[in-house]
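Troubleshooting log. The previous run stalled partway through. Resubmitting the same two chains, unchanged.
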Amino acid sequence: MAAIVLGGSAGGTEALKAVLGGLDPRLPQAVLVCCHTGSETVELLCEMLGHVSQLPVIEAGEREPVRGGVVQVAPAGYHLLVERDFHFTLSADPRVNLSRPSIDVLFASAAAAWRNALIGVVLSGANADGAEGMWELRRLGGCAIVQSPDSALARVMPQAAIDRAGADHCVPLDAIAPLLNRLCLP
Amino acid sequence: MSHVLDEIELEGIELDLFVEAMRRRHGYDFSQYAPASLLRRARLLAERHGGGSISALIHRMLHEPELLPQLLEGLSVPASDMFRDPSVFHALREQVLPMLASHPQINIWQAGCAHGEEVYSLAILLEEAGLYERSQIFATDLSTRALERAHEGIYPLRSAQQWSRNYVAAGGLHSFSNYCSARYGLLKLDRRLRRNVTFAQHNLTADEMFCEAQLVLCRNVLIYFTNPLQQRCLALFRDSLVRDGFLCLGLRERPGAAAAEADFAPVDANLRIYRRGAAMSGRRL
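Second attempt completed without errors. Output:
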């Protein structure tokens, strides 16, 4: 199985809507989302993303298996990690980059689990979370897509990812979903 | 067999060796911890104490026993917040404490108390319910350093605002500031809150039950364990609880079938509050 991991913060919800709304429903990959919302739950986020996405959107559950063709969102207040046997693990460890869930934590564990069968996407955000994770992901052979900072509501996060890790694709928001469909479907 | 191992596989070997060395050198078994979060913690410890290498960390662990408390601290339950998830504490106040009030002596076990934030939250709840004088809280953790911190009850002042909001949301009767004082950028909890708290080391992977409790809290600890160890803990909690005793887990923990098997019925499934069934009596030791 292969996977796509997406991370965003300020402006991330809007960006996620645009990306998930454009994903082909035949996509076999697991889609994992880490978005800093500041809310106590991701119930609303899942609902909102579920309205635009043709793939089902659910909250990732502790020790549930990762599911292909499903968007799975990191719960609020916990880091989301992927085990090597493709089950989720949650962690209440301290915040990373002032964030929990942290994009770095998700990306790093996903990179170790999927290696070159992983695509990472860093979207709009106002802090540098995700940059280290993207670096780790590329180091282990994953493919890095970054929303072009000019097309982001908040450019800090995509810019930090590019500065730290570089990118295989740096494209405007509306080009990300078509790119993912092209990379993921035969 | 291929002799070409990549660094991820090598790190996997290092982690296995680390676990094996901890067990044989110090008697602590982390083999039933969820690998992804254990690896993350081992990496953080390796950065702090091993120049970034888990192998170097193993060397120091073997030869510098004085490092053990710091290793255990890095591998155990992280700090929490006071009244973290206020809805849970609200439910404890409204639904659980009134049921406990019928007991002449109330024993509460908080397993994995970390720096004690939730211990003091409980003490405040009991105080405000008028039950604290006949309550005893056993607060345990794997890490002795965490227990020292918990005993001190001193926290960064920057937490105060959030904790005060949590206290109100949890149905606090007074003002959070009644229970603490602020000085030099630190928040110090009223020491009277710990007058009925016993802090003690307890290892959920190996140690047995040690009290008969009306309520067990163990929040955000089981998420770090694999299924067999989760089951061990749930059985331990059941055996430690009186009939109809309460169990409170973390909001995103999914004990599911294992909890039912251990004879727990949900009181409020969303808030992860359970009650020990009356049907089965506890294991006799």
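Takeaways: Residues 30-106+132-149+175-186 of chain A form a domain with the Rossmann fold fold (CATH 3.40.50.180). The longest strand of chain A covers residues 3-8.
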